[in-house]
Design goal:
9 helices, alpha+beta, 4 strands, 158 residues
């Protein structure tokens, strides 16, 4: 995509606009590796920082999740029946490389609680942070009560 940046005598402002555009267009390609449990977000601030980083081990899109499922047939993601997995993926919302909202009910019938936490670790969230985000969905850029949903701080800044 082309960007038109007006000519200006202020080259610093022009560079800043170009830098902002480059950052917005940056796409992090996911690396299929182990979750880096030492870097899981424990707070909203840490989640924001992780999401804006170049960490390539977190899932940032539905495609990343599908890639994770197909890469390890022993993973919790692979144990979810395909129709339930697709329903889960359809309920995911992302913005700026971060999970904003998830409908997690499809996971409940086939995964243990520990496995559900493992799934959300792929998005960069530790267990306690995941618990604090449950039962809210992202509505009009705000996390509002909604059973079977998860809403992250990324919802409010999207």
């Amino acid at each position: 995509m082309a960007i038109l940046i007006p000519r200006s005598d202020d080259s610093d402002a022009r560079r800043a606009l170009l830098h902002q555009h480059a950052a917005a267009q940056r796409e992090v390609i996911m690396s299929i590796t182990e979750v880096d449990k030492t870097r899981l977000a424990k707070t909203a601030k840490e989640f924001r920082e992780l999401a804006s980083s170049s960490a390539d081990w977190i899932a940032r899109s539905p495609e990343d999740l599908r890639q994770l499922r197909s890469s390890d047939r022993r993973s919790a993601l692979a144990r979810i029946p395909l129709d339930e997995f697709n329903l889960f993926v359809e309920g995911l919302k992302f913005d700026k490389g971060a999970l904003t909202c998830a409908y997690y009910k499809p996971l409940m019938s086939s995964l243990t609680l520990t496995e559900i936490f493992d799934v959300f670790e792929h998005f960069g969230m530790d267990r306690e942070f995941t618990l604090r985000t449950l039962e809210y969905s992202c509505e009009n850029r705000k996390c509002e009560f909604n059973f079977w949903y998860l809403c992250t701080i990324a919802c409010e800044v999207s």
